[in-house]
TrEMBL record:
Catalyzes the oxidative decarboxylation of 6-phosphogluconate to ribulose 5-phosphate and CO(2), with concomitant reduction of NADP to NADPH. GO terms for molecular function: NADP binding; phosphogluconate dehydrogenase (decarboxylating) activity. Substrate binds at N103, S129, G130, G131, H186, N187, Y191, K260, R287, R446, H452. This is 6-phosphogluconate dehydrogenase, decarboxylating. Pathway: Carbohydrate degradation; pentose phosphate pathway; D-ribulose 5-phosphate from D-glucose 6-phosphate (oxidative stage): step 3/3. Its EC number is 1.1.1.44. PANTHER family: 6-PHOSPHOGLUCONATE DEHYDROGENASE. It comes from Schizophyllum amplum.
Length: 489
């Protein structure tokens, strides 16, 4: 008789840890791996003494599972996922569920949901965040896909996930690839948070001439306030960590950032959606610029910046300003991330659970923070909140932060310390709150050189400038009247 509650394919560390986690929560897990010797090794070592069962073929795996069968794939994203789906399908029956917990790109999950639905099978693409540690003790889980699957996997997922504030860090995200989409945005936001923290470190180090240990103490203080988060906490620990010679280890690390591509995916998705997610974009580009180490060394010798001047102001005040700058910039980054999700949801016809998404990120994952509770509260207050900046709590918070934020960005510019993330956050903020932007001039230029036409500003209409029409003006008195579009004034 089939006794398995859920099967898992892929016995790398993430897979093994997720199995042990689900086993701890009382579920009977059947483990399989392409290289079946890993099944034996797992049962003899890590899973020894647990209820975990092994399977040495896909057929055996499926025969050991209670119906509807549930199988999680934790294998390399891409072809391996499709290969396993193809192998599973002949051994499954309508209503069975295939879950991809890997780092898949959301368009693949959109496609797989549709393909499996046509075969009567239910596909779930789930973001899994929190690394090996999260998988073992409670990750943030972001499942999306065929909604019929959710009632069958809900208990396992919500028990296996991290718990924060008495609630599981897992809820149904939305249809098709929505789970992997939200995981992608999570990773983009993670890029932004890390870049902001690194810029704050740079300002404290190069601007205020503080030591790593002094900076760590500042981060520890910040971690007791609005910035309380996993990333601020580990940053303080990193800065306190000395090498054997007593020097901070961080100062010996090559300043060339790597990336695996999920931040880039978010930036590309933002460009595709026409959504101004500037901070994540800058965070990705900052990593790209850091990668030009050799060129930067040459440039540092050839190109002069402002002369170094000791800070003459009130250091304590400036450090408080920096805390506010970090908080405000982080708020802009999350505002942009949620804007992107809203825009995509509209385009894809998805209904996303924004308060739920914020809650899912409160524990188990890299961006977990106190701040996310305030975000979930804002969306619970108003489910269709257009922007976090319209929420009273955040509106007041950013008003308070504004003076310090501006002082920090201005000072960094004077020092010549790069703050792409802080600066773009402020530029976005100033753009967002501007009723009039210079896009009027831009439209005039487009019409001047390319006859691309423009629309009239409400209140400025006249015979020539008619409302609702695409207007072309003969700016030079030369050339024709033919516009690149339809209407000619
Ligand atoms: P393996 O142990 O047989 O290599 C992480 O790499 C996990 O993904 C491992 O369980 C690995 O299986 C699996 N994996 C990687 N590439 C794969 C492929 N092309 N087909 C099947 N499984 C693959």
């Amino acid at each position: 008789m089939a006794t398995g509650d859920i099967g898992l394919i892929g016995l790398a560390v993430m897979g093994q840890n997720l199995i042990l986690n689900m086993n701890d929560k009382g579920f009977n897990v059947v483990a399989f791996n392409r290289t079946t010797s890993k099944v034996d090794a797992f049962l003899e070592n890590e899973a020894k003494g647990t209820n975990v069962q092994g399977a040495w073929s896909i057929e055996e795996l499926c025969s050991k599972l209670k119906r509807p069968r549930k199988v999680i794939l934790l294998v390399k994203a891409g072809d391996a996922v499709d290969a396993f789906i193809e192998q599973l399908v002949p051994h499954m029956e309508p209503g069975d569920i295939i879950i991809d917990g890997g780092n898949s790109h959301f368009p693949d999950s959109n496609r797989r949901t549709k393909e499996l639905s046509a075969k009567g099978l239910l596909f779930v693409g789930s973001g899994v965040s929190g690394g090996e540690e999260g998988a073992r003790h409670g990750p943030s889980l972001m499942p999306g896909g065929n909604p019929e699957a959710w009632p069958h996997i809900k208990e396992i997922f919500q028990k296996a996930s991290a718990q924060a504030y008495g609630e599981p860090c897992c809820d149904w995200v939305g249809p098709e690839g929505a789970g992997h989409y939200v995981k992608m945005v999570h990773n983009g936001i993670e890029y932004g948070d890390m870049q902001l923290i690194s810029e704050a470190y740079d300002i404290l180090k190069r601007g205020l001439d503080l030591s790593e240990s002094e900076i760590a103490d500042i981060f520890l203080t910040w971690n007791k306030g609005v910035l309380d988060s996993f990333l601020i906490d580990i940053t303080a620990n990193i800065l306190k960590f000395n090498d054997d010679d007593g020097q901070p280890l961080v100062t010996k690390i090559l300043d060339q950032a790597g990336q695996k591509g999920t931040g880039k995916w978010t930036a590309i998705a933002a460009l595709d959606a026409g959504s101004p997610v500037t901070l994540i974009g800058e965070a990705v580009f900052a990593r790209c610029l850091s990668a030009l180490k050799e060129e930067r060394i040459r440039a540092s010798k050839a190109i002069a910046g402002p002369a170094k001047e000791a800070f003459k102001g009130d250091k304590k005040q400036f450090i408080d300003d920096l805390e506010q700058a970090l908080y405000a910039s982080k708020l802009i980054s999350y505002t942009q991330g949620f804007m992107l999700m809203r825009e995509t949801a509209k385009e894809m016809n998805w209904e996303l659970n924004y308060a739920g998404i914020a809650k899912m990120w409160r524990g188990g994952c890299i961006i977990k923070s106190v701040f996310l509770s305030d975000i979930s509260k804002a969306f619970l207050k108003k489910l269709d909140l257009e922007s976090l900046l319209f929420d009273d709590f955040f509106n007041k918070a950013i008003e308070n932060a504004q003076p310090g934020w501006r002082r920090v960005v201005a000072q960094a510019v004077l020092w010549g310390i790069p703050t792409p993330a802080f600066s773009t956050a402020l530029a976005f903020f100033d753009g967002y709150r501007s009723e009039i932007l210079p896009a009027n001039l831009l439209q005039a230029q487009r019409d001047y050189f390319g006859a691309h036409t423009f629309r009239v500003l409400p209140g400025k209409e006249n015979d020539k400038l008619q409302p609702g029409k695409d207007i072309h003006i003969n700016w030079t008195g030369r050339g024709g009247n033919v516009s690149a579009s339809t209407y000619i004034a």
